[in-house]
Write a structure and sequence with these properties.
alpha+beta; Aminoglycoside 3'-phosphotransferase, Chain: A, domain 2; three-stranded antiparallel β-sheet; 8 helices; 10 strands; globular
């Protein structure tokens, strides 16, 4: 029998790998519904759905390795990053999925609540939070919705050499801001943004991308702390916030 590898596990969901099969267990079946439909709609490579028996979804493993990991330098080639950028562009140019994302007002309200918690809890200095809240303002503007992945971390993008082999974890796919996907993919890997844009194109707003780097890091920190992750690890969210000072 193959060894069971725990890929990620917390109170909301868990992902296990057994050989070439990933087993995803999610307490909220809506997430699985979105993931399956989004993969069917996406015009880029995604994992094959092997079977589904709620609350478990079985997916075939993608060949290759992740584009990178937060907190570690990416060893992927510039051409691999460019291939990822080209795939993201193809996704953003595709017809919209049926699920809308959060409104600017909803995102801003959540961000302000998270900033208050970070300061009140003593998790981060108030000047660091305040500065990044100012930077995040650039992302809080109207945008034209596109088909976004919604959680396009480097660990969700797989490459083999210079070729993209697929993208995983589609449960947060929605009609969202194109700059958000680009920001999440380069969070903690700012030096690879130029490589990404070789494939994606240059019609991007760098201030908005920087705004999303700050917004994502501020907005996710409490969840990470409460679910056993460490945003203070080198190269992770707190370092991203400090780089804005």
């Amino acid at each position: 029998m193959d060894e069971v590898e725990v890929v990620v596990a917390h109170s909301e969901r868990a992902t296990l790998r057994v050989g070439d099969v990933f087993l995803k267990v999610d307490a909220d079946q809506t997430n699985i519904d979105v993931e399956v439909e989004a993969m069917a709609l996406a015009p880029i490579p995604t994992p094959e759905v092997l079977w589904r028996k709620p609350p478990v979804l079985a997916l075939a493993a993608l060949p290759g390795t992740a584009l990178g990991r937060l907190g570690e330098p990416s060893t992927a080639s510039p051409a691999a990053w460019a291939a990822a950028g080209a795939a993201v562009r193809m996704l953003h140019d595709a017809p919209l999925p049926p699920w809308s994302g959060g409104s600017v007002d909803e995102i801003a309200s959540h961000l302000d609540a998270e900033c208050e918690w970070l300061i009140a809890s003593g998790t981060l200095p108030s000047d660091l939070v305040t500065r990044n809240r100012q930077v995040a303002e650039a992302a809080l503007r109207p945008w034209t919705p596109v088909f976004t992945h919604g959680d396009l971390q480097t660990t969700h993008v797989f490459v083999d050499g210079d070729k993209l082999t697929g993208v995983i974890d589609w449960s947060e796919a929605n009609q969202g801001d194109a700059m958000y996907d680009l920001a999440i993919l380069t969070l903690g890997h700012e030096e690879r943004l130029d490589d990404l844009l070789v494939g994606y194109g240059t019609d991007v707003d760098l201030d908005v991308i920087r705004g999303w780097w700050s917004l994502r890091s501020l907005g996710a920190s409490r969840w990470l702390v409460e679910h056993g992750f460490d945003p203070s690890s080198p190269g992770c969210e707190f370092d991203v916030l400090r780089s804005r000072m």
